[in-house]
Design a protein that fits this description.
The protein is an alpha/beta fold. The protein contains 14 helices and 16 strands. Bound molecules: zinc ion.
């Protein structure tokens, strides 16, 4: 209640006459925080996000709760863990029992619209259309052997901008951009522009998942350049969207998960590992009630996005929300250690896939200093000291038994939250699309 009141105060200071702010939520697929210039990348991949961060608050350490699209986006929209909702893999349908952000805004008189850019977010694939007056999911570009699997950022943003033109306030708009997700194809000019020879040796072809293979290229720097080019493309569209939304809108920007770019020998993929590459995503808020130019180093989560937006808009939280409002963090008034961040990656077949990656079910808990990984089926665990070993190479559970035991107890509490499985409503067309991505066999 106090957090809610703090949000109201900030809002009152920023808005005249207590008017509800317009709200824009932007999510970008497969976007690692450390490949955005807004979060310190050495190449200028995200000038628009930099400008947004300069007029708002950037959270430097935000973690995703699941390294796949549908589970992570449903976490953002419900502030619940995939274990509770059952949306634990792509193509799982969010059960109606879990209220979503758009429903809350609509109930409060907002006009609501979503413009998404991947087949995985079609209504029948995920159930996330609930609460939106308009849910635009027409895909227009080929990927993964599917003629209409995705939509480029330019086109999704064109449509969102048309929706915004002359729209009466208040409105809630969600835009999901998909470009950084493989196959990386930003066009030759951007691929050249972001190419840096980092002197890495060519990859063994077996390391590169089929949907990512580009011609006969085995150069990891070439793939990385094209990934960066896709980020730039999404950011360019973001710039236009922010302009159309106007300075008066409350904005949240984040990603559903990151991407492996060679860490732990995992290349141009996500979904199986729970390391920094997979989990560390950008998070920026800007607009009414959000302090400008702040960069907050605290550990925060995708779970916290919905509670924060509702707090800033002066609305009550979603019932059963697991996240917390980050308004006290923005104002520097938060006290004590932040809550831990949980994540899980689903089982994807055997012990290892054909590229040698560990595909067993695993869960993780992260605190400001440590991350514990647990394989519940075998009881195996690894503890990483993220300060001393940012590459997460060394297991320190033997050296830090007290920390390992404390985190294991936290993780067991997380596992006890539930083991829900969303009703298997996956249509054959969605299954086909998932097989193209390698998500299904
Ligand atoms: Zn995704």
């Amino acid at each position: 209640m106090r957090r809610f009141a703090a949000g109201l105060l900030l809002l009152a200071a920023a808005c005249s006459g207590g008017r509800r702010p317009d709200v824009l939520l932007v999510t970008v697929d497969t976007l690692r925080a450390d490949h955005t210039s807004a979060f310190g990348y050495e190449l200028p991949t995200t000038p628009a996000l930099e400008r947004l961060a300069a007029r708002g608050t950037a959270f430097l350490r935000c973690l995703s709760q699941h390294p796949e699209t549908d589970p992570s986006i449903s976490t953002i929209m419900t502030s619940r863990h995939p274990r509770e909702t059952g949306v634990r893999e792509n193509g799982a349908f969010l059960p109606p029992a879990f209220p979503v952000l758009a429903e809350r805004f609509r109930k409060e008189g907002y006009r609501t619209a979503a413009f998404v850019s991947t087949y995985l977010l079609k209504p029948h694939a995920c159930g996330l259309h609930r609460g939106f007056d308009t849910y635009d999911h027409e895909m227009t570009s080929a990927n993964l052997g599917h003629e209409r699997f995705e939509r480029r950022a330019e086109e999704t943003v064109d449509r969102a901008v048309r929706w915004l033109a002359g729209r009466a306030s208040p409105w809630f708009l969600w835009v999901h951009l998909y470009d950084p997700h493989g196959k990386y194809d930003p066009g030759p000019a951007l691929a050249r522009r972001f190419y840096r020879d980092r002197g890495r040796p060519d990859l063994d072809p077996s390391r590169i998942v089929p949907y990512q293979r580009t011609g006969d290229s085995l150069d990891p720097d070439d793939y990385t350049a094209r990934y960066d080019g896709e980020i730039f493309r999404a950011d360019r569209a973001l710039g236009r969207l922010l302009k159309a939304a106007g300075r008066g809108a409350l904005v949240a920007f984040t990603a559903d998960h990151g991407e492996g770019l060679g860490e732990h020998d995992y290349w141009f993929r996500h979904g199986s590992l729970l390391d920094r590459a997979a989990l560390h995503v950008p998070l920026v808020f800007a607009g009414p009630g959000v302090p400008a130019g702040r960069r907050v180093p605290s550990l925060v989560r995708n779970l916290d996005v919905a509670p924060t937006l509702l707090d800033l808009a002066g609305l009550p939280p979603l019932p059963g929300a697991r996240g917390r409002s980050l308004v006290p963090e923005m104002g520097g008034t938060a006290r004590g250690e932040p809550p831990p961040a949980f994540a899980e990656a689903r089982r994807r077949g055997g012990v290892r896939d054909r590229t040698g990656v560990d595909t067993r079910y695993k869960a993780a808990v992260t605190t400001p200093r440590y991350r514990l990984l647990l394989w519940p089926e075998t009881g195996e665990a690894r503890l990483h000291d993220l300060e001393a070993d940012p590459g997460e190479e060394r297991d320190v559970s033997a050296a830090r038994p007290g920390v390992a035991a404390r985190l294991r107890a936290l993780l067991e509490g997380f596992l006890a939250l539930g083991d829900a499985v969303a009703p298997p409503r996956r249509a054959e067309d969605v299954s086909r699309a998932l097989r193209g991505l390698g998500y299904l066999r």
